[in-house]
Write a structure and sequence with these properties.
With 131 residues, the chain is an alpha+beta fold. The protein is built from 4 helices and 6 strands. A hairpin with a 4-residue loop joins strand 4 and strand 5.
Amino acid sequence: MALRWFAGWLPDADKYVVSERALARIAAWHATDEPRELLAGLPPLQKPVWYETASPVRGLVRGYGALPAADGGIDVGCASFSAVLNGMNPPLGPARVTAAGLQRPDHMGDKSWRELRSAAGVVLRALRRRG
């Protein structure tokens, strides 16, 4: 499901390449805020956004996406490719962020949920820093 979700909007997204250093700053900014708290400070998202970062040392490329939802929330997801592991890790998402919180997708395991929650925080902080 996540792969189809990404394929439906990624070609039209605003795309940004983020350095590892910038990603670390983004991840640390308001690090204790919950996704719903980060959403509260955002203007409405007008179109999809994709943030991508690469770590040549670790052989890893990660992407974080956000898509405006009809109810005023934001759907988030993430994907990664590891040259070390010879392939793409399964993409995760979508999960909707609303004023009530981040909604866990059905049938998602705990490890994937922790990763998706972390990705949601990264993409929402990136959107807030972008203004």
